[in-house]
């Protein structure tokens, strides 16, 4: 297991714990296995499953957050995605949307393409977010800390980043069954 | 030349209420006007701008993205793997650097090949001119809502009054 010692959770376990704390908040989920796993764990109309456009999940969420300041917007992201769209950390940090919570499941690999290493074992992404201007930033390893910090972020003004170290385990989850235009239409209706 | 405030007002009349993008000198006047009207959210990359506009669209806005044509290259994957397949409309206001080979070297290849590139990506496009401005904008508005994909309005040098006359 590559990630930091003591990390026992899989991404799906961490995601399930967070989904239990969410109800009707818009959730933008990055491409690859995270979208498939979220779809399998709890498919909600408020979920936007991004299947392409790697690196862009927080930018999509930022567009939603700026246009719907009354709704708390959540991003489920990965380390490879954050590294690809790192400029968006600066945009979020500069614009400071209060209703923006960025969860990064960090397994230190490009899991959807065969576990090639990323560089997040060297570059601590939550520190980059902090430097870019995110207001609340936490790095967690176990489930208790994850739940505690996420509950806390739901109560606070953001932008917030919760980086959760996860192992490389991938849930047996098929592709998202919905067609992309149906995902758009359903999401738009649900967050209206 | 079209005044920047006239152009921005025409876009607002069309219903556009979320503007983002990355600047170009040819778009300087438009962006200044948008900033004055507090309508502009700056992005750091064109793919980010397109994705932000997609999020705003899904949250009920009518969005437009400003960029230099070099940004089409940066935004390409987002335009096709987000907007096109998810049916998310977006008005692209693209400055045509390198038009007829009269520009700095880095603009020449994109300046020459951009119409073919847009055709290959199946992004409808039209080039803005002063006498046809209202018709051009009407076409953009109708096409973007009917097809629910990105539609590009190409802006050459000297069409809209910029920061430097």
What would your notes on this structure say?
The complex is a heterodimer of chains A (192) and B (165). Chain A is an alpha/beta fold. Chain A has one domain: Thiamin diphosphate (ThDP)-binding fold, Pyr/PP domains (Rossmann fold, 3-Layer(aba) Sandwich). Chain A has 8 helices and 8 strands. Chain A has helices at residues 11-21, 33-41, 57-67, 79-84, 87-95, 125-132, 143-155, 180-190; strands spanning 27-29, 47-49, 73-78, 100-106, 109-110, 116-117, 136-140, 160-165. In chain A, strand 7, helix 7 and strand 8 form a beta-alpha-beta unit. In chain A, helix 1 (11-21) runs parallel beside helix 7 (143-155). Chain A is globular and about 40 Å long. With 165 residues, chain B is α/β, with parallel strands linked by helices. Chain B is built from 6 helices and 6 strands, in the order αβαβαβαβαβαβ. Chain B has a single domain, classed as Thiamin diphosphate (ThDP)-binding fold, Pyr/PP domains (Rossmann fold, 3-Layer(aba) Sandwich). Chain B has a 6-stranded parallel β-sheet with strand order 2-1-3-4-6-5, with helices on both faces. Chain B is globular. Chain B has helices spanning 4-13, 28-36, 46-58, 70-86, 108-120, 133-147, and strands at residues 18-21, 40-42, 63-68, 90-95, 125-127, 150-155. The interface between A and B is medium-sized, with 33 and 33 residues. Chain B: Keywords: Decarboxylase, Lyase, Pyruvate. Chain B: GO terms for molecular function: sulfopyruvate decarboxylase activity; thiamine pyrophosphate binding.
Q: Major sheet of chain A, described briefly?
A: 6 strands, parallel
Q: Helix segment count of chain B? A: 6
Give me the strand/helix succession of chain A: HEHEHEHHEEEHEHEH
Low-pLDDT windows of residues of chain B: none
Number of domains of chain A: 1
| CATH architecture classification name of chain A | 3-Layer(aba) Sandwich
H and E order of chain B: HEHEHEHEHEHE
Task: Tell me which CATH architecture of chain B applies here.
Answer: 3-Layer(aba) Sandwich
In CATH terms, what is the fold-level topology of chain B? Rossmann fold
Proportion of helical residues of chain B: 40-55%
The helical percent of chain A reads: 40-55%
- Radius of gyration of chain A, in Å, reads 15 Å
Strand order of the largest sheet of chain B: 2-1-3-4-6-5
């Amino acid at each position: 297991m590559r990630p930091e010692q003591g990390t026992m959770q899989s991404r799906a376990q961490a995601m399930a714990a967070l989904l239990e704390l969410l109800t009707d908040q818009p959730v933008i989920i990055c491409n690859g296995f995270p979208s498939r796993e979220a779809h399998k764990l709890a498919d909600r109309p408020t979920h936007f499953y991004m299947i392409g456009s790697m690196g862009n999940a927080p930018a999509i969420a930022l567009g939603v957050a700026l246009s719907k300041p009354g709704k708390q917007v959540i991003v489920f992201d990965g380390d490879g995605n954050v590294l690809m769209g790192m400029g968006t950390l600066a945009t979020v940090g500069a614009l400071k949307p209060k209703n923006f919570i960025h969860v990064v499941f960090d397994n230190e690999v490009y899991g959807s393409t065969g576990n090639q290493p990323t560089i997040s074992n060297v570059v601590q992404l939550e520190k980059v977010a902090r430097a870019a201007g995110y207001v609340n930033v936490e790095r967690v390893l176990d489930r208790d800390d994850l739940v505690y910090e996420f509950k806390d972020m739901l109560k606070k003004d953001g932008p917030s980043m919760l980086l959760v170290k996860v192992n490389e385990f991938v849930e047996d989850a098929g592709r998202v069954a919905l067609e992309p235009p149906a995902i758009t239409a359903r999401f738009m209706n649900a967050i209206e | 030349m079209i005044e920047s405030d006239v152009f921005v007002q025409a876009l607002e009349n069309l219903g556009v209420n979320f503007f983002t993008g990355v600047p170009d000198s040819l778009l300087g006047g438009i962006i200044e006007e948008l900033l004055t009207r507090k309508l502009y959210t700056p992005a750091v990359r064109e793919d980010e701008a397109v994705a932000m506009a997609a999020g705003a669209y899904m949250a009920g806005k009518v969005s437009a993205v400003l960029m230099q044509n070099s940004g089409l290259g940066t935004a390409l994957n987002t335009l096709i793997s987000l907007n096109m397949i998810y049916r998310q409309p977006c008005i692209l206001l693209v400055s045509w650097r390198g038009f007829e080979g009269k520009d700095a070297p880095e603009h020449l290849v994109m300046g020459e090949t951009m119409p073919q590139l847009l055709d290959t990506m199946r992004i409808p496009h039209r080039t803005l001119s002063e006498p046809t401005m209202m018709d051009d904008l009407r076409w953009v508005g109708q096409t973007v809502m009917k097809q629910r994909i990105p539609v590009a309005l190409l802006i050459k040098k000297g069409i809209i009054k910029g920061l430097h006359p």
